[in-house]
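Trying the structure run again after the queue cleared.
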Amino acid sequence: MTERIRFLSPKQVYELTSLSPRTQGRLAEKGQFPEPIPLFEGSRRIGFVESEVQAWQAARLAKARPPRIGAEPQVAAPATNGRGAARPPPDRT
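Done. Tokens:
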């Protein structure tokens, strides 16, 4: 089965990344963001390949939060009342 390729408009990319269309273009020119694809000849309409934008997001996240070597995944401890007993959830009525 072939992979479905989806094109995103600059507005859709903005909604995913918070990067303005102008910033998208500047970063793409520097090779720091996926290049837009002309959607058809004779038109100025462009699209970004969704999987490339997602890969860029994943790379940014990995760079911002590198894994700690030897660190165990942190699991939140259950809330207690100070005596070891589980604290009941607050009444929100």
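DSSP finds three helices and three strands in the chain. Worth checking whether this holds up in the mutant runs.
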